[in-house]
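call fold(seq) -> tokens
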Amino acid sequence: MSRQIINQGGKPAFVVIPIEEWRRIEATLEDRAAAAAVRAFLKNPAETFPDSVVAAILEGAHPIKALRAHRAMTQAALAKAAGTSPVYLSQIERGRRAAGRKLRAKLGKALGVDADLLARDDD
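ret:
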């Protein structure tokens, strides 16, 4: 491997290497980072969701509605578990009302997910 060392103030400051060598190093670093992420996930696995849930949210469904459907819960059951009314929950799911932080926390607990997953950009 050819390299050029550039000094600043009498000390090595930079190394110039061929682009192909850099690409090899970069690929190795990316592989190691990916492997570390997999190891971290396997140590403390988080719940994953099927493509259908993610697709529903990306297509505009409210995350609360998509996750409620995934959990096979009715609006009435989720509303009762979160201490709110089915009508209010329906309005949230349709985008007519926003769920406040406290209600999102209760809904998250009832759905078994982090409340942050239930927030929308327009909430």
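The mean pLDDT is 94.
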